[in-house]
Structures
1.
Amino acid sequence: MPSLSERPDDIVPMARHFLLEFNRKFGKSFTGIAPDAEAALLAYRWKGNVRELKNIMERAVLIGSGTELALRDLGLEGAGPGDRGKPEPGDPMLPAIPPEGIDLASVQETLERRYFEEALDRSGGNESRAAKLLNINHHTFRYRRRKLGL
């Protein structure tokens, strides 16, 4: 099957489908997706294909407010037609590598720890719901939680 980037006509209808699905799941009432957000969805380079779109929509519904999902809810602000989702230099979501380099393992662990803590906080400590927020199964969640010492 071709990648989602090669099927742009499918992106917005699928995003709307996921919006309705997550509205029901999380008790939200979004009526649609803002035009600039739809444009960003179309411009984004979908490396993770449908699963990535689903994850982005789930996150957007969880953090979004108002009646329409906004571009800021999607977290794709840098995904304009000219850059196809490539991060801007100095983007706080993806800081540049300093001249002395980084300890990638430490960065990954810090990021993972932060997301695990937030998922546990949002789920009230319920591991199954926290695992769903991170789109991993419960057993993987428990294993990685122990490994992180949480």
Note: The mean pLDDT is 83.
2.
Amino acid sequence: MKVEKAIEVRDLTRDFGSFRAVDHVSFEVYKGQIFGFLGPNGAGKSTTIRMLNGLLLPSSGGGSVAGLDIVKDHGRIKEIIGYMSQRFSLYDDLTVQENLTFFGGIYGLKPARLKERSHQVLSLVDLLDRRDQPTRTLAGGLRQRLALASSILHEPSILFLDEPTSGVDPNSRRNFWELIGDMAQRGVTVLVTTHYLDEAEYCDRLVLIYQGRLVAQGTPLELKQALPGRVLRLRPDDLSQALEAVQGLPQVLEANIFGDTLHLSVPDEDEAETKLRAALEARGISCRRLEEIEPSLEDAFISYIEAAREESQP
């Protein structure tokens, strides 16, 4: 069974004067996927989203969204997608229902359909009992859910979420991702940008963008498994001194601080362990724990970013 493409991007590029914000990015998103766009702030995630939803034209390259060309049909794309930006637009002086009525008017919903869809989306995001509550009194997580309800009121088949959980508490973030998963199960395609690595695990597929360039793509598992060598976790008494001691060892491919531990990428665990302990003892640093661990997405993220940085150096 052939899976339908929802989004296709080919060498997408966007310049702002002499600054290249997005540099020849290409990827495909299939119907019903949760597709994650991962990268640090300023990497080009939001600029790419704006080109795909018709708000910004590319400098070169192209693509399609739901079969519509992002250059020729950019005006029509805005009518058929859902879009929730980082600073989702809600009107504080209106109630929850009045916000939905306002957005329903923008989407051209007839009164009977608007009433039906308002009930459906408020039920979905668990805000039905707050429909008459002033929006300004909602907590951050509830405002987030109302913004999602507003963006799916017109039943879009493709939903763009630009860092939708930024600034909300962990419990609200978890609940929000449950909603996203439910929509994907019903066939909605979701493209979501995030810099939260734990959220990236919910995605069916990820692309990692850095300085406007796509540096890695695959499933979360594929990205982790593509890391070279093994990952060791080291818990020393003196973190900064330990990092300095191991960074120059030929047996260590990468060394990065994770909380109160070091994560080390090594080609051979046994040889690396011997050299690591010797290097630490030479500096009088005791090691409370040294163990092999499964690489995390954060390990993969740092590894790909470091490789991209080295490649970009003159």
Note: The chain has two domains: 5-223, 228-294.
